[in-house]
Design brief:
This protein is of the alpha/beta class. The chain has a single domain, classed as Rossmann fold (3-Layer(aba) Sandwich), CATH 3.40.50. Strand 1, helix 1 and strand 2 form a beta-alpha-beta unit. 29% of the residues lie in helices and 14% in strands. The chain has eight helices and eight strands; from the N terminus they run βαβααβααββααβββα. The radius of gyration is 16 Å and the shape is globular. The strands form two sheets. Strands 2-1-3-4-8-7 form a six-stranded mixed beta sheet. A two-stranded parallel sheet has the order 5-6.
Length: 228
């Protein structure tokens, strides 16, 4: 029986601090993982906090991130249609999935953390031994997720995600609503990052798999697939 992965994407298309700046899904963080999962015969369902349409981060459609994988998805009407009709978390039964994978893009900072249904799904998958994965800003989706005992899922666990240093280098530190690296540390996460910014870096801690940035998406998906 094929393994099933719930892939989480965003509905947000603008920065709240300055709506003239567009944001959205970082496309390659979806497509690199989707390629890995498809190669292994896994089934993938796209879910977003509100359901429905998913915007694409304009900067993810530029070199070097707009690679063959991302272009192949963007040029395929059937796959682009998937980004117009994602399911909502309320429609999801966590028992149907072996893993959940949070994609990134700065947009997820706004709509991932506070979604109670996403937190429920993540907790249920994690507590029964399923895999929780996130890449880049996707780890914002784990910020407020608590386990049944009331503790934060990330407390005491090793993980990574987009660093504050990378926010500064990407020149969006004045636009983002919070410092997610700092908040993760406040929740007791054992955060680490690559020596060089934007280098591929992945951390595995039991059934929690995280990647630091867009360049880490494929490696993160491979680690997740190996566990499945």
């Amino acid at each position: 029986m094929s393994k099933r992965i719930l892939t989480v994407v965003t509905n947000v298309d603008r920065y709240e601090a300055d709506p003239s700046h567009a944001t959205g899904l970082w496309l390659s963080e979806l497509t690199h993982a989707a390629d890995v999962f498809a190669d292994r015969g896994f089934d993938t369902t796209l879910v977003s906090p509100a359901g429905g349409r998913v915007p694409i981060e304009p900067r993810s459609l530029k070199f070097p991130y707009f690679d063959r994988s991302a272009r192949s998805w963007r040029d395929d009407p059937a796959r682009m249609a998937l980004l117009e009709q994602t399911v909502s978390p309320a429609e999801v039964d966590s028992a149907d999935y072996d893993a959940i994978y949070f994609t990134g893009g700065h947009a997820v900072m706004f709509d991932f953390p506070a979604n109670a249904d996403l937190q429920r799904i993540t907790r249920e998958i994690f507590e029964r031994g399923g895999i929780v994965g996130a890449v880049c800003h996707g780890y914002c989706g784990l910020l407020d997720t608590r386990l049944s005992d009331g503790s934060f899922l990330v407390e005491g666990r090793r993980l990574t995600g987009f660093s504050w240093r990378e926010e500064v280098l990407a020149r969006v530190d004045g636009l983002v609503p919070y410092n997610v690296e700092e908040r993760m540390r406040e929740r007791g996460a054992r955060y680490s990052r690559a020596l060089l910014p934007f280098a591929s870096y992945t951390v595995a801690d039991g059934n929690l798999i995280t990647g630091q940035n867009p360049g880490s998406a494929r490696a993160t998906a491979r680690r997740l697939a190996e566990l499945l």
